[in-house]
DNA sequence: ATCTATGCAAACCGTTTGCACGACC
DNA sequence: GGTCGTGCAAACGGTTTGCATAGAT
């Protein structure tokens, strides 16, 4: 992330007034939690790249991290929960495992999920927001969020298509 | 499910030309699999009620089943996979666990998920189908399906609201 | 000094699997 | 009779937790 002269940070596409570190520190303080080596390294590593990742990938990255402190598996899991609570990360569940992505300073969006290569492609849709509000109203349901995953096959995989058996390939 | 004089079955809201049992049998035959006691009881139990359920609930129901045959945990898991492959059930993942619902003869729909009581409320939206196609086209992505879960608080829970702490209750 | 955070390893929980026995065609 | 299915119990994989120690305030 880059800081410009007006003291804001570019994260993804949106400018926000403080860095993830700063924001996380605020969260920690508000909860009476402490700013530790490992929490710092972790936030740095997470916001170094704009990617989807799971706990294991993060643990892998932390292994190679230049910053000295090593972070145990348990601590990674505990910190991920905190980052979600702090509003810095968004968590979703894909298949069995939990997948995380940047939330703070990043616009609302949804995903195309390629069932061949597991890629996640982001897209934005304002109509969807309108739609979810309408549905909520219709059912006296107080909407707080949504998760849409459109599955299918991405352009790349559609190319090198070495035809797998499809379910219900009767006969 | 009830059979009427025109030999179709009412499952949920749509009429189909054969019962889940029959359809499952077809699937099994097409795969060279066998029609066993336990698969029969299982399909009966699953289609007795129109509900969302997980593996454990089903195992529970099978325990009380009047039909003699008992079905082991392993068999339940194996059969659920088959029912999904056969197009009789749809599987989704909510939090950690797999949740199943009727697919066969039941219209495409999505869900409102109450984060307080975990209830799932179904709704239909044709605009969503249009939307997902549009997005797919835009990204050269061959769409095969989607999963939308709108989360929030249902009417009931909004009433007896005994205010839990909300994440990000800073200060 | 106090009290939270960490690391380790064991526990957990839903799900899957190897294997010997039983049931279907 | 030959296979496929089942039950059991053990294995699995991601995640959580209890506990003693290290570290932040």
Structure description:
Two copies of one chain form a homodimer. With 171 residues, chain A is α+β, with helices and mostly antiparallel strands. In chain A, 37% of the residues lie in helices and 25% in strands. The first copy, chain A, is built from six helices and nine strands. Chain A has helices spanning 20-30, 37-48, 55-64, 73-85, 126-138, 155-159; strands at residues 2-3, 9-11, 14-16, 53-54, 89-94, 97-102, 110-114, 120-123, 142-153. Chain A has a three-stranded antiparallel sheet with strand order 1-2-3, with no helix packed on it. In chain A, α2 (37-48) crosses α4 and α3 packs across α4. The radius of gyration of chain A is 19 Å and the shape is globular. Chain A binds chain B through residues 26-27, 30, 84-87, 93, 95-96, 112, 114-115, 121, 123, 125, 127-128, 131-132, 135-136, 138-155, 158, 167-168, 170-171, and chain B through 26-27, 30, 84-87, 93, 95-96, 112, 114-115, 121, 123, 125, 127-128, 131-132, 135-136, 138-155, 158, 167-168, 170-171. Chain A binds a DNA duplex (25 and 25 nucleotides) through residues 32-39, 54-56, 70-75, 77-78, 96-98.
């Amino acid at each position: 992330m880059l800081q410009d002269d007006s003291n804001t940070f570019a994260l993804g596409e949106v400018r926000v007034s403080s860095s993830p570190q700063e924001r996380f520190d605020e969260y920690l303080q508000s909860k009476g939690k402490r700013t530790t080596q490992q929490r710092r390294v972790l936030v740095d590593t997470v916001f170094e790249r704009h990617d989807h990742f799971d706990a294991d990938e993060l643990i892998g990255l932390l292994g190679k991290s230049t910053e000295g402190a090593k972070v145990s598996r348990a601590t990674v899991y505990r910190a991920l929960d905190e980052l979600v609570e702090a509003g810095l990360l968004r968590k979703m569940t894909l298949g069995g495992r939990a997948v995380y992505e940047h939330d703070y300073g990043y616009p609302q969006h949804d995903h195309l999920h390629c069932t061949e290569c597991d890629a996640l492609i982001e897209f934005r849709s304002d109509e969807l927001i309108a739609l979810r509000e309408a549905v909520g109203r219709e059912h006296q349901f107080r909407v707080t969020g949504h998760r849409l995953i459109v599955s299918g096959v991405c352009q790349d995989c559609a190319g090198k298509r070495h035809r797998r058996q499809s379910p219900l390939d009767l006969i």
